[in-house]
């Protein structure tokens, strides 16, 4: 089974995330083939979504990293 994130998977994830979280979210495959894609709003990368294959089932994990300096102005 292919662990690399395909453009079709990225497009489906984008539609799902836009419907559930924010219509401005964009899923972009990375330039290098791997199991992750980046999640963006405008020019800001919010995090990554990883493709996980375990026991023949595929799932996706969305990881967002928030830096402490991003919280200083709140």
Extended strand count: 4
Number of distinct helices: 2
* Sheet having the most strands: 4 strands, antiparallel
Please tell me the overall pLDDT: 90
What ranges have pLDDT less than 50 throughout 5 or more consecutive residues? none
End-to-end Cα distance, whole Å, is: 44 Å
How do the helices and strands follow one another from N- to C-terminus? HEEEEH
Could you characterize the architecture of this molecule?
This protein is α+β, with helices and mostly antiparallel strands and 74 residues long. 24% of the residues lie in helices and 41% in strands. It contains 2 helices and 4 strands. It has helices at residues 7-20, 68-71, and strands at 25-29, 36-41, 44-54, 57-64. It has a 4-stranded antiparallel sheet. A hairpin with a 2-residue loop joins strand 3 (44-54) and strand 4 (57-64). The radius of gyration is 13 Å and the shape is globular.
């Amino acid at each position: 089974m292919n662990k690399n994130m395909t453009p079709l998977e990225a497009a489906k994830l984008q539609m799902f995330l836009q419907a559930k979280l924010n219509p401005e979210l964009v899923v972009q495959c990375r330039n290098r083939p791997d199991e992750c894609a980046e999640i963006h709003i405008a020019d800001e990368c919010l995090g990554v979504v990883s493709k996980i294959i375990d026991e023949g089932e595929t799932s996706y994990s969305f990881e967002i990293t928030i830096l402490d300096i991003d919280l200083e102005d709140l």
